[in-house]
Amino acid sequence: MADLFAFGFMVHALQAGTVVAVLAPVLGWFVVLRGQTFAAHTLGVVAFPGAAAAVFAGLPAVAGYYASTVTGAVALSRFRGGRRAGTDEPTAVGIVHVAALAGGFVLSRLYDGMLPQTTALLFGSFLGISAGQVRVTLVTAVVVLAVLAAIWRPLVLATLDPELARSRGLRVAVLDVAVLLLVAVVVAVTSGIAGALLIGTLLVTPAAAAHRLTARAAVGIPVAVLVAVVVTWASLVLAFVSDVPPGFYLAALAFGAFGSAVLADRVRSGAAAR
After folding, report:
1. pTM more than 0.90
2. Mean pLDDT of 50-57
């Protein structure tokens, strides 16, 4: 453990991982509550071709992350709460998901110099984080959490009862776009750390586990954050002492936490029934 903090790259990884582990589950609580987990995961996949296109054009990968995820969020928000042009939201999300993943691989093949980075784009690289990335991640987290706090009450009403929210003059469509844009920003700033495919692990799984234990946000969100922080730190420590990438541990431990929450929920329900 002393060696763990002796290397700058591990300190940066722990710092950035902690920020992401605090930020992602808070937003993820709403993502799960709104039934948009597939959309959130798809925005992570959309980040892959965005980064690939940016690198192909000689630009920083982060520019592609932001451009693709924000564009994807605006596009997917048009299908929220109904059908547009004969296509409902899950269908539109599925189409975008497949197209984005295929497009990313095509772009990575077109530029041979990017091939070694494909795994990092998809699964992240906790061990290559700079101090600058830590600062950007922290600032982004503060801004996203501040915006989320500002729209908290109307967002809760629009999520639980959209018709009542409309009758009270709330612009539900604007809130739908706002949520996906916040998800897009979180995905963009964390994809370089957790990877385009694995960001859904921290964004969705801890929040989903907390939802199985409680419906109260005041209790569930801290539980989700605690799960994410423990999973992130454990993944980094295990990766440090083994040859296995942290992404594997991140997915495995998060899945184990969710499975434990499901089991606890069933035990509690069985005890209540008896």
Report:
1. no
2. 80
